[in-house]
Write a structure and sequence with these properties.
globular, 1% helix, single chain
Length: 457
């Protein structure tokens, strides 16, 4: 574990003598699992909590069994958070809270039950998380029938599992401060695919009933009071909002043999307020709702990208060249600009990078060629890689500061480094933004891991 703020100024020695570089384990789990963590993606940060797996007792292609560990900034060593029978753990994005599943029982392919544990973690000692007992995770047809999450403020833990009838999924809650002391309380019976609003005041859930398909409902959280039907025929649900701000919900719906639609409800207390922002006959190849919930951008099955303004339902086309396919629209946080990739029209499958004002798709401008990725950062700007080599997949890392969240700077992108490995770029720190990337081509003395930052201040 390296403190990147320190390392951005001077790389600390990683020999056990410097507090900015700590060895957390020498027995990291580096295999896959039938159920459970897969290296390397399972070892990751959940907010400021790093969760990783080591000292595993299971082997490749088995259900994972082995301890899980956590580390947070300021800790001088990792702490064990789960037993030798743990399968996998997850953490809260803002608070030192985790939950784990342990001790899968029965058929490894279709386990009959597992133990659920959840609670706070702290430095100073290994943690034994309070148990919520054994839950039933699978329906008789093999579909998952359990979920778990802490509320956005960390005050409540919610989870669902099958009742003993193996048919009904029940949602229960318990105050985080009373985990292991107070039994969970049932708040919704017959809830599937549930999720909490960003302000933690509501829970959205599906109920499979009726010929029109699943129905979306909403109820107060954490009480489960005032349940209300919102819409039927639901295929997908997206809760809108960010960082404690509730902006309603969006759904994809369809009718039997008829067209599909994307609908937005800004205020679930007004269920008559649905707005249809997209109607489509064919498939949607991609769909993106802006973080501020003012726009929806989508790619149809002809790879035409359109933007709809929620306020008046006006639409516009982003494709700079209507004869060339466009892909993957994405917004800055307040939707001052929208970005997308568009085929270059050459023999190779290259995509160029474009930006525009989503209000009317004006000012379409190309800013990158042979793009590897585009990553908007809040309202601060854009990080991207372009000039991609088709054989080696090396690219040039660049960024663009957008100081007012909507105006492309006259001086254009800042070039960070050529010949980066395209998939290797990750944010090592968000505020300030520090980028970690790998170079594995070119002169040998220039190859290795790099830190660059801070950028986009």
């Amino acid at each position: 574990m390296v403190n990147v703020t320190v390392a951005a100024a001077a790389i600390p020695p990683c020999d056990g003598t410097h507090p900015a570089c700590l060895r957390l384990t020498s027995t990291l789990w580096t295999d896959g699992a039938l159920f459970g963590p897969r290296h390397p993606h399972a070892h990751r940060f959940h907010g400021d909590t790093l969760i990783f797996y080591a000292d595993a007792l299971s082997g490749l292609h088995e259900v994972h069994r082995g301890p899980a560990f956590a580390w947070r900034p300021g800790w001088q060593q990792a702490r064990r958070i789960a037993s030798e029978r743990a399968m996998e753990c997850w953490g809260h994005g803002d608070w030192p809270l985790v939950w784990c599943v342990e001790d899968l029982a029965g058929d490894p392919v279709r386990p009959g039950s597992m133990e659920l544990r959840a609670g706070p973690i702290a430095d100073g000692a290994d943690t034994t998380l309070p148990s919520l007992g054994r839950i039933l995770p699978l329906r008789t047809d093999g579909r998952l029938a359990w979920q778990a999450a802490f509320s956005p403020d960390g005050a409540w833990f919610a989870f669902s599992s099958l009742d003993i009838d193996l048919v009904t999924e029940t949602l229960k809650v318990v105050p985080t401060a009373q985990l292991g002391q107070t039994p969970p309380v049932e708040i919704v019976r017959g809830a599937t695919d549930w999720r909490l609003s960003y302000d933690g005041g509501r829970v959205y859930f599906l109920r499979e009933a009726g010929p029109q398909g699943p129905t979306l409902l909403v109820a107060d959280f954490p009480s489960g009071a005032n349940p209300a039907d919102l819409v039927s025929g639901v295929e997908a649900v997206t809760v809108l909002g960010e960082h404690g701000i509730d902006r309603g919900v969006a759904v994809a719906t369809s009718t039997q043999g008829g067209p599909g639609a994307v609908r937005v409800l800004p205020d679930p207390r007004k269920p008559a307020g649905w707005t249809t922002v997209v109607s489509h006959e064919g498939d949607l190849m991609a769909l993106q709702i802006s973080p501020d919930a003012r726009f929806t951008a989508w790619t149809d099955d002809n790879f035409v990208v359109r933007v709809a303004k929620h306020s008046d339902l006006s639409t516009c086309v982003l494709n700079h060249n209507p004869r060339l396919p466009a892909h993957s629209p994405t917004f800055l946080r307040d939707a001052g600009l929208v970005f997308w990739g568009e085929d270059s029209g050459g023999d190779l499958e290259r995509r160029d990078g474009y930006y525009a004002d989503p209000a009317d798709c004006s000012t379409r401008q190309r800013f990158a060629q042979a793009v590897y990725f585009l990553a908007p950062i809040d309202n601060r700007g854009l990080v991207f890689a372009d000039e991609t080599d088709d054989n080696s997949q090396r690219a040039t890392l660049k960024y663009v500061p957008i100081t007012d969240g909507k105006t492309w700077p006259q001086e254009g992108p800042v070039r960070v480094h050529p010949d980066i490995d395209g998939p290797s770029v990750v944010p090592a720190s968000w505020d300030p933004l520090i980028l970690l990337f790998r170079v594995s081509v070119g002169e040998k003395e220039n190859q290795g891991l790099y830190l660059f930052g801070p950028v986009l201040l």
